[in-house]
Input
Amino acid sequence: MDEAMSEAERCPCGSGDVFGECCARIVRGTALAPTAEQLMRSRYTAFALGDVGHLMRTWHASTRPREIDLDSSIRWWRLEIVETTGGGPFDRRGTVHFIAHYRTADARARQEERSSFVRDGRAWYYLDGAAVGA
Output
């Protein structure tokens, strides 16, 4: 991880919980995300922290790239979950429509995406995403 985060700090995913009670165990690989939305939140947190390891571990093998190169000039600052479909503890598939807000040195911007997830055994994995809007 590029950035250290205290267990007592607010989790970057925007849940309102502190990191230690929210995404920390999932990002560190000591717990599985119970839902597709929670995996999405932990992946956003991994982007905010620069944690490529978590992103790779939670990307389904059928679509996972060989490597991920994160842009260190981007600062992720807010996640909005717009809608979830499926992705619960008894589902095999799910989608999460989200808006991730970020800053660069020059501007503020956002990434809006509908991400697809699949559950394999007890673990949820990110499959792919499609941009929403322009």
Observations:
- Strands lie at 75-86, 93-103, 108-120, 123-131.
- The chain has one domain: 19-131.
- The chain has a mean pLDDT of 95.
- The CA atoms of residues 26 and 32 lie 6 Å apart.
